[in-house]
Design a protein that fits this description.
Shape: elongated
Length: about 120
Amino acid sequence: MHKEQSERTKQDIQEELIQWTAENRDKIYSPFLTMKGFDPVKDTSIEILHTILLGVIKYIWHVTYTAWSPEEKQTFAVRLQATNINALSIHTIRSAYIIQYAGSLIRHQFKTTMQTNIFHV
């Protein structure tokens, strides 16, 4: 709040924000979200990858990776980098990145590790 407006109450500020929101509704919300018949909850599919499979994969990766010694991690990185990905539906493997950030991987990195671990662990 500005110094000259320090007398304003929380109620005044809240009312001003509600009024601004009502006046600028078209700027705040996408027209797509306000269409009749559109329900984001009903119209958004839930992917099994993000609800069940990814959680299981994260757990398996964590249990596996945390048990390795630094030498085993290095061996895995070398083997992972040498993987032939021609028949796999994955991007180029960045094994150094995967090893460095093993605790913070995202979907496609988990996919890479799960598709290739069977050959290297």
